[in-house]
Amino acid sequence: MAQSNRVDSAGQDRYHAELDRLRRGRYRKSVILPFGFASLLVLAYIGIAVALPAPTQVAVLSNAAFSLLVLCPAALCLFPFAIAMLVLVALTHRWQRGTISPLRRLERWAAALESNADRWLGSIDQRILNWAVAFAPIRQLLRSFDTLSDETVGEEEL
């Protein structure tokens, strides 16, 4: 029994040693190599910038370095957001097709409401006009009691 525990512990030790080796390899590939490559790239840019005699050449180099070191990672980081926006546009198009019939029902209801409102307002206008015609003689009678304006006073004196 004691011997089987030693075999198990030795097998587990080898298993853990293998896991540690794989972990170190992944760490090397994912962290150390990109950091080393970026460091060498920055050092190369600095060396080339120091060696170049003209300021315009340095400006071209700095623009290229800015593009590579800042804009490209920013574009890579924003790429998932761009994909998400494209998916949302596609889904919006699909949802828009699903909302056409309810919107058409709403449009028909609004048109019916508008025609009813126009009919009601037309009948109110007609009643007001009928009342105005009916009260026209009374209005003419009340106008005779109005005071004379300054213009008519000036005309009567002449």
Tags for this model:
158 residues, elongated, mainly alpha
Explain how this protein is built.
92% of the residues lie in helices and 0% in strands. With 158 residues, it is mainly α. The longest helix is centred in the first third of the chain and has 50 residues, at 2-51. The mean pLDDT is 81.
Helix content: over 70%
Which strand-content bin applies to the residues?
Answer: under 5%
* Shape annotation: elongated
Order of helices and strands: HHHHH
End-to-end distance: 143 Å
Number of helices: 5
Report on the biggest sheet: none
* Average pLDDT reading: 81
Structural class of the secondary structure composition? mainly alpha
* Rg calculated over all Cα atoms: 45 Å
- Poorly predicted regions are none
Q: Can you count the beta strands?
A: 0
List the helices and strands and how they pair.
Elements: H1 2-51, H2 55-98, H3 100-134, H4 136-143, H5 150-157
Helix pairs in contact: 1-2
Would you summarize the structure shown here?
The chain is mainly alpha-helical and 158 residues long. 92% of the residues lie in helices and 0% in strands. The chain is built from five helices and no strands.
